[in-house]
Structure formats: structure tokens, C-alpha cells
User: Fold this.
Amino acid sequence: MKLSLPLAMLLALSLAPAARAANEADYKAAYAAAEAASREAAGMRNQWTVTVSALAAAKKAADGGDFDRAVAAAKEAEALAKASIFQATSEKEAWKAMEIR
Amino acid sequence: MNARFFLLGSLSAALVAFALTSPRVIAADKVDPVADAKAFQNFFFQKFPTVKHEDFVNGPYSMNEDMKRQWQEKEEFPPYEFALDAGKEMFATPFRNGKTYADCFPNGGIGIRQNYPYFDTGEGKVVTLELALNRCREANGEAPYSYVKDEMASLTAYMAFTSRGKPMDIKIPDDPRALAAYENGKRYFYTRRGQMNFSCASCHVQSPGERIRAEILAPALGILNAMPIYRSEWSGMGTTSRRFVTCNSQTRAVPLEPQADEYRDVEYFLSYVANGLPISGPGARP
Assistant:
């Protein structure tokens, strides 16, 4: 009875899917998504410098064969680009609240 | 009967309470530059009642007495002096075709800084002094200068110097495109951008006189009257274009190309709302 908990944990761990290292296809998919969002932000004249840096970091990591790092940087770039799109969209009206009247 | 009065009274009270607590309704979007300029100037005059109106053009020095004293001493041998001398010489030097900058501007280019930028009804766009200088060069077969520093800063420094003390005098012609450009500039000024989520107004309307790291923020009112400026931080001169580009970068926004429509329009807006305040350029800033 006392052994049942450790055994259950061991069983659960052995059955849990092992974390898979990212490959080039993962990177390409993540980078394409980030690049599309980044292009949309640039089209709204609201690109962020950090998005550009994250995209460059993703490419550099992929060029060096570090796809885990490349995918992480690409996902960060996509999140930043989406935040800048949200900012540009909300500011279309929100700027008026700051105006001196 | 009493119950009906009570009900009506309660309803009226609820309506009044709702009206008082509802969020401020933003006024209708009517473009009124005259009212804007009045409100803009009054905001700063009331926020800083001890600052002389004409002193706002001196940026952070109008906000801090210690800095002002240091600046006044520095003005005896101002750091922009070399650029000023270079600009004067460049302005007088003929192009290869024999013409000079004076041929491109009203009054030979002397004492006209306060009228820039202007709205060109032929082109349907705002024309800044920097843009007009490069167009003058190109019209005379010369290559345009970089918009952000060096030669352009020297030329505009000299032209500003010949206008020192003259009140900013920007006109908005009766043309819907001019009003649209003005409104676009105003929108750009108040719009938050970059990862820092800052607008121009975040620093220069909400926080003038406050420190951002080691710097004291300048008020937006009259901020362009001192352009171009020597900045110790840059170890050199910078134009209005450079100021906009670096402000964008500091908020982690990718800057637009110098003399992009948005930059031209925001210069138009900021200059218009500073009408009446003296030209003080070239300036020196920390």
C-alpha cells in the first residue's frame, strides 16, 4: 500500500510523452507565422524594434542548427508582432483620450 | 399619487447619477486648429504658471533652474557654433550651376524659419524646411543631404539663427487636405507606439519637467522652435528628423523613414500649436 504512490508516479512518468527537440520544419512553421504577423504590423506602420530583433535571433539560431532556440525566438517574435497589431488597432480611437482639449 | 412622484423622483435621480458617473464622452471629431492651439498653449501655461511663455522654447531649461543656469553659461561658447559657421558658409557657397540656396527661398532664405513647415497646395502635402533644402539641391543638380545630421543640421542651424526671436507663424490654408495633414499630425503625436507603449504626449505632455533616467523631459509646447539642436548625448548636431527617429527608437518602435508623411504632418501640428512663440534655434540640449 505504501508503495502504491511512488509506483503510480513512476508509471505516470514513464507513460508521459518525452519532450521532443524542435526540428527544421518546426522552425520554418514558427518563423513563417512570425514573419506574417510582423509584415502585418509593418503594413500598419507600427513595427516594434524588438520584433525585428527576435526574428533575427530566430534566424541566427536556426542557421547555427539550434532549432529549439530558433522556435522559441520565432514564437516570441510572433507574440510581439501580434501585440503591436493590437496596439495599432486599439490606438485608432484610443489616442483621442490623450488629446488636450 | 405620492408613489408616482416617488417613482419619478427616483428615476430622475438615477438619470442624473448615471450622467455624472458615465465616462467622459469624447467630443465630435471636428478639426479646429485654432481651438486646438489655444487649448494646447493654455494647458502648459496653467501647468507651469511661473514659466514665462516665451521660455517654453528652451525645453528642459524652462523646467529646471539649475539646468537653466548651466545652459546660460554654456551659451557663451555654444556647442552648435561650429555647425552655425559651417551652415553660413554652405548657404552662401554657389552650386555648380552658379545658383545658391537663396534662389530657392522667399527673402533669399533669411529670416524665414518661422514659416516652416508650410502646406503646399500644389503638391497637397506639408513641406518642411529640411525637405525644401534638399529639393533646392536636387533642382540645382546637387545630391540631397542626409536628413538627420551634419550638413542638413548646419544649414538649418544657420537659417534658424537668422530667424531667432521671430514668432512661429504657421498657416493652415483653407484646404481640406491641409486640415487632414494637420489632423494626421495630431493623431501621430497622441498615438501610443512601440513596446514601451508611449506616445509623444506621454513624455512631452504628461511628464514635462519630470526625469526619465538622467534627463529632464521638455514640454511639447515650442519643442521644435529650438531645432536643430546640438545634443551632448549625440555628441553632435541633429535635425527635427533625427529627433523624431530617435524618439521612436526609444519607445522601441521602428522609426519611419525621415520626411515620411507622418513626420511631416506631426511637425506641422507641433509647429502650428507653437504659433506666437519665438524661434530659438539652433539649440543645445544635454
Chain A has a mean pLDDT of 90.
